[in-house]
Each structure stands twice: as C-alpha cells, then as structure tokens.
Amino acid sequence: MTYPKAVLVLEDGTVYEGIGFGYPGVAVGEVVFNTGMTGYQEVLTDPSYAGQIVVMTYPLIGNYGINADDFESARVQVAGFVVREVCEEPSNFRTQKTLHEFLADHQIPGIAKIDTRRLVRKLRIYGVMMGALGIERTADELFDLLKRSPRYDELDFVQ
Q1: Residue 109's closest CA among 150, 53, 152?
Q2: Is residue 49 within 8 Å of residue 77, measured between CB atoms?
Q3: Comparing C-alpha atoms, which of 158, 134, 140, 135 is closest to residue 28?
Q4: Beta-bridge mates of residue 66
C-alpha cells in the first residue's frame, strides 16, 4: 500500500513528518501518550481520550486488527493517532478490519514512521501540548490551524 505524506506539529514549533494512514484529513487536539503494549483498540474508544491526539509508545500497532467486541464505548473518542509503525496485515481470527480501515471509516487521521520515543520524551519533559495532525497538509497550514483552534481545556467533551 502506498501512504500519503503526513505532518504533526506541536504548539512549541516542533514538526514531525511521516506517512499518513486512516482518514485523509486534519485533527487538532492535546497530544498525549499511552505506554501500553496492547490495547490500542481500547485506547481509540476510551472516553478519557476524547478529543486528544494519542501517541502509542509500542513500536508496532495494528497487528491484531480491530473487532467490535473490544470497544470501550459506542464510538471512537480520539481526534488523531500517532504510531511508529502501522501493521498492514493483522493476524487474529477475530479481526474485522485493519487499523487503517477502522480509522478511515471513523474519519480519524493517523501518522506513522515518526520517532515516537523522541516525541514522548518531549511530552514527558515539557508536558502535554496542543498539536495538529494533517495528511497531505503542510506544516505552515497546520500551524495556522492550531493558532486559530481552541485549547483543549476550553472544550467540553461531556455530552
């Protein structure tokens, strides 16, 4: 599969370039991380991650696919998803969709092939910060969008 270019920008000016997967759009949100080796599907549907761009620290994500039995809520909660490497061919008898298909179906952009260790180290040292993730967008476009967007703590995710 051929993946488009993707960019993640942080409010401090840091730019990460990689490949896009999932929905070919844009997400703005607070950038946080999860250190689990498994459970990415639960992370995607966990209400505690509502509106956030989640970085997974485990290097390969998507290897067991997606199935509806493991959802934490009725919908996808994250705004965007960041991984080191996305698995194209999951290996699990329960797989109903690939991670790419699932995110595309739910209009969630993802970025892969970035140094997630470096990104998480930055977040751990300086704290979570706002970010914008875009597929087939420039860093300048994303910075402009980020400047115009409300901060995470200005939004209400309780419905």
Answers
A1: 53
A2: yes
A3: 134
A4: 97
**Can you name the residues that pair with 55 across neighbouring β-strands?**
33, 82
The Cα–Cα gap between 102 and 65 comes to 9
**How far apart (Å, rounded) are the C-alpha atoms in residues 145 and 159?**
25
Q: What is the pLDDT of residue 153?
A: 79
What pLDDT was estimated at residue 158?
Answer: 74
CB 53: neighbour CB atoms within 10 A?
29
User: Could you tell me if 21 and 151 are in contact, meaning their C-beta atoms sit under 8 angstroms apart?
Assistant: no
Give Cβ neighbours of residue 34 (< 8 Å, ≥ 6 apart): 40, 43, 54, 55, 56, 57
Q: What is the pLDDT of residue 159?
A: 64
Residue 24 contacts residue 109 (beta carbons within 8 Å):
yes
User: β-pairing, 15-22 with 26-34?
Assistant: unpaired
- Asked if residue 32 lies in contact with residue 53, where contact means CB atoms within 8 angstroms, the answer is yes
pTM, full prediction: 0.95
- Chunked into runs of 10 residues, the chain (159 residues) has average pLDDT values of 94 98 98 95 96 97 93 94 97 95 98 98 97 98 95 77
What is the distance between the alpha carbons of residues 23 and 136, in angstroms, rounded to a whole number?
A: 11
CATH class of 5-154: alpha beta
